[in-house]
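queue> pop job 88
queue> type: inverse folding (structure -> sequence)
queue> payload:
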């Protein structure tokens, strides 16, 4: 009897999957690959049930002879081992980043004479509704909030990009690239105080109030599912911070990062060029402890950001603070630097990891931007935040377009710099 392999990456079975099994059955005995959690994440299909539950679900389907685990999005681990006579897949992977997976399968099958059978992808109202529901489920606060902790446990490093609007949220949510035969995308979003302020034409001095920040978060949440880390500035008054923790938790924000500064906060990238006051260890620890006490779920994270290197107070001060803030209950430490070289960040991370091997570490490589995710991960960093790049990309493009229209007294010359609206709207979700 011939053998057939097909890979599933779903928590819910719909007509499309049943049709694949029906078609596969015509060729022989059917083995389903259940994509592992780690691989699902890279595929933007965050699991809402466990791998064991998915295996049971697939095993229960009529026509399925066995289920195996597929550990990566590419088929390199399963095909050479199973050597199926056929791989069956829907025909909806010929274009876009998924075509890399198709090419991978074709190459592997060629090595021993296996065949690819593509069946027409099932588009109907039921399939659409189930796909939609699955997505909506991930956007619910309880799923979204928990997802950051899960990602920290599952990924070598959680890749986080700045979002300051629905549109930038969609870019963070949907950008997928194929690189060296692998698909990649961002894991989480950072709602930066700098970009949220700049987008409103205001300075980054805690002038944009929490209600406005919540509106930005809500705009992003409306159209995305990925977890959100909020830049909470100094956290404000402890008496206010505790209320904000509850609000953020209820909305489904995964983490707030608060920095150990006090008084009129200025952006860290100004460093010592402007007057900035660091909070005392005692005060800031009390703020963290109060926030943790107010929190209602186990999922939400309060991450302490240490400004000692920015304010040139030295490595020892940074490490003393990190230890104290973890003791006060901080769920993570963000260490910041405005040096061009990542050396002081590496030194901090290495020394911190000597005294604490588990508390998540967060860095924002804006100044030390030569550093790679692999290097950061090797020094024990868990979350990397690209804190302002989308805003900085948009600003020069918008300015140049405005100048070009002013100079030429018409829009034609600017047009070559612009994306047609029909391409932009492909990003926008339709119900
Ligand atoms: C932000 O993005 O607002 C930050 C990071 O706080 S930084 O601008 O580097 O201080
Ligand atoms: Mg900020």
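queue> result:
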């Amino acid at each position: 009897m011939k053998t057939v392999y097909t890979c599933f990456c779903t928590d819910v079975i719909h007509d499309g999957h049943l049709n694949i099994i029906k078609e596969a059955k015509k060729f022989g005995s059917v083995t389903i690959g259940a994509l592992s959690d780690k691989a699902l994440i890279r595929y933007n299909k965050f699991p809402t049930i466990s791998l064991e539950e998915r295996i049971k679900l697939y095993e229960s389907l009529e026509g399925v002879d066995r289920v195996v685990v597929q550990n990566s999005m590419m088929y390199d681990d399963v095909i050479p081992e199973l050597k199926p006579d056929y791989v069956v897949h829907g025909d909806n992977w010929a274009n876009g980043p998924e075509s890399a997976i198709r090419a991978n399968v074709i190459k592997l099958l060629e090595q021993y004479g296996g065949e690819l059978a593509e069946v027409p992808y099932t588009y109907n109202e039921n399939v659409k509704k189930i796909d939609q529901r699955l997505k909506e489920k991930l956007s619910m606060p309880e799923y979204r909030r928990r997802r950051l902790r899960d990602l920290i446990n599952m990924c070598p490093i959680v890749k986080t990009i700045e979002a300051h609007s629905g549109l930038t949220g969609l870019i963070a949510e949907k950008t997928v690239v194929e690189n060296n035969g692998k698909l990649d995308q961002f894991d989480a979003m950072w709602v930066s105080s700098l970009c949220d302020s700049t987008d409103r034409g205001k300075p980054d001095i805690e002038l944009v109030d929490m209600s406005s920040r919540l509106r930005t978060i809500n705009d992003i949440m409306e159209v995305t599912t990925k977890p959100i880390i909020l830049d909470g500035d100094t956290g404000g008054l402890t008496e206010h911070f505790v209320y904000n923790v509850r609000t953020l938790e209820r909305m489904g924000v995964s983490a707030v990062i608060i920095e150990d500064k006090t008084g009129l906060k200025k952006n860290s990238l100004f460093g010592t060029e402007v007057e900035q006051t660091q909070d005392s260890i005692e005060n800031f620890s009390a703020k963290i402890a109060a926030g943790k006490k107010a929190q209602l779920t186990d999922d939400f994270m309060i991450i302490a950001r240490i400004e000692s290197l920015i304010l040139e107070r030295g490595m020892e001060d940074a490490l003393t603070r990190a230890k104290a803030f973890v003791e006060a209950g901080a769920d993570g430490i963000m260490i910041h630097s405005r040096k061009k070289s990542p050396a002081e960040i590496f030194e901090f991370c290495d020394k911190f990891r000597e005294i604490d091997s588990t508390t998540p570490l967060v860095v924002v490589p804006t100044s030390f931007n030569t550093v790679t995710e692999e290097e950061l991960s090797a020094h024990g960093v868990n979350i990397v935040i690209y804190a302002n790049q989308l805003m900085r990309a948009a600003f020069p493009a918008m300015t140049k377009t405005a100048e070009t229209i002013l100079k030429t007294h018409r829009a034609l010359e600017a047009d070559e710099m612009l994306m047609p609206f029909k391409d932009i709207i492909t990003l926008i979700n339709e119900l």
